[in-house]
Amino acid sequence: MIKYVFRRILQMIPVFIGVTVLLFILRAPGVLPGDPVRMITGERPISDALREQIIKKHALDQPLHKQYYIYVTNLLKGDLGESYQRRTSVVDIFADKFPNTLRLALAAIVIEIIVGIAAGIISAVRQYSFSDVFVTLSTSVLVSVPVFWLGMLLQIFFGIRLKEWTGGAVFLPMSQMSSSQFPDWVHLILPAITLASVSTAYVARIMRSQMLEAMGQDYIRTAEAKGLTRRAVIFRHALKNALIPVVTFVGIDFGVMMSGAILTETVFSWPGVGREIFLAVGQRDWPVVMGGVIIIVVIVMIINLLVDLSYAVLDPRIRYGGAQE
Amino acid sequence: MAALLEVRDLATHFFTRDGVVKAVDGISFSLDPGKTLAVVGESGSGKSVTALSIMRLIQEPAGRIVDGEVYFKGDSVLAMNESQVRDLRGDRIAMIFQDPMTSLNPVFRVGRQIGESLMLHRHLSRKDAFERAIELLDMVGIPHPRDRARDYPHQFSGGMRQRAMIAMALACDPDILIADEPTTALDVTIQAQILELMSELQERTGTAIIMITHDLGIVADMADDVMVMYAGKQIEYGPADSVFYRSGHPYTWGLLDSLPRHDVDEKGTLLPITGQPPSLINVPSGCAFHPRCRYAREICPREVPASREVGEGHFAACHFAGQDGFVRGAAQAGGEVA
Lengths: 325, 338
What we know:
The complex is a heterodimer. Chain A is an all-alpha fold. Chain A has 14 helices and no strands. In chain A, helix 7 packs across helix 9. Chain B has helices spanning 47-54, 82-88, 100-103, 110-121, 126-139, 145-148, 158-170, 188-205, 216-222, 240-245, 250-257, and strands at 5-16, 19-31, 36-40, 63-72, 75-76, 93-96, 176-180, 208-213, 225-230, 233-239, 308-311, 314-316.
């Protein structure tokens, strides 16, 4: 097991190098339009001396491989550089944004797990019933609705149509939250629903099909022949088997959400990692883009590892690296 | 004395898009304590559905027991409510299935699965149930039962899994063990071991067994009574010796003739039953076996044969059963039926 984890961590190194090299190539002269110095200074004219100074400071006069070396060396020391636009450290920017993303991701994942799994189970247990048809249809719709559009619809409905009741305050940007009549967590509801929508639909569908498959297995008949109640057969014998693929999906999805939900965060002006990267791309704030992507890559890799390890807990047929049999 | 299990005119049908499948259509038998009844027939003859019907495990609404009676110790099983049937399942009537590879839940420890019915029916604590599961594993001949109880099913071989299934079925000391082709999925050498184990445990515990099989060799070894099924119908039923040596139905003769014999020197040709088992949606008229029967006559497609007593407690559902000269081998010897 430890050997397996160690091997997986080693495998992260080439992925990491690949991603950073790719991002560096984007920085090579002529790949993307725009002069880095102009990105930093803006439109106002600058003296040659200042220009020289900026180039030196950001090592822009060095060859690309040298710049890469400097960047990685700093990275290993925990320094992701400084934002071109804001003159603040990239680490500080993301340390500031990350809790917001985490909060949103956690809220969304809770919705996804509770609603998705419950809907999937009900749908499978009462196959072809009204509830099943409702779940199947509504998940089809949710999967095909663009996230940003759903977010806007929710804003229009709760913020404008129900203005009397909500005071238009249900989707207040975080900076104005303190002035709202609602406690902070209320402002999390709409963005979390929006972010969770597509995934919840997927979870419900995976859960339904897995549950139906599990219910058709021979061991379910064995469990019934023991005299177990239907409830015990479903929730003990079928559910544990059916959950394995769902856990995979939810785990990976959590990784994706942690890396910032660009659409949801943008629509709701939610100051998270995704929105920060989105803005930085627009401003060609290269160190922020680079730093953000690196943080995301690391988080996704770690979560994927945790998901893989959780298989071993859920499914006894999977054991990593052990010469047990 | 009332029989342990009494089945009368049981009929289980499945209602499909293509029509009504009469999987079990009017079968009757009785089982006494400690005895073994073998249910024999080709695939699709309704053997497993019979077993599942007794346990009331037919998946509704597709399938339904449409007629008949099942009495367990004099109580009507079909009249019981869901919770009364559950008390019966796994406790008084237990079942083991054909494929031990898929019949155990892959995500629970073997010991836990065996102990589950003890927790349910005997209200043992989880720990006590696990201890008892270890004893049961020992009883069915699994070495190092204490360690193996902690294993998961995938760590067991096929034979060991079927032993574990038997341990699970016998956990609550049931009155009846229904074994649905328990050895079909196993290697031949393992088959013999499992059958021997079942006989041995039957002697020790006095459990009655309903052995569903298509292997007449097993029947000869184990059964006290035999029921032969064809297309959902019971075509012959009686004491094993009588059915083997004085069989009254051409289908049973066919089954016996298609069995390779090891006790004769000459390599005689096997006599297979020609044709295919019928579709259960369009069962042939009259005697369902008539299209494949060498002895079929004009009456056979017209009338459903009644079950006639051809010996003591031995019934055969053939128009000619018990008539003089209507015996096994008459057709291939060229003899005309009276």
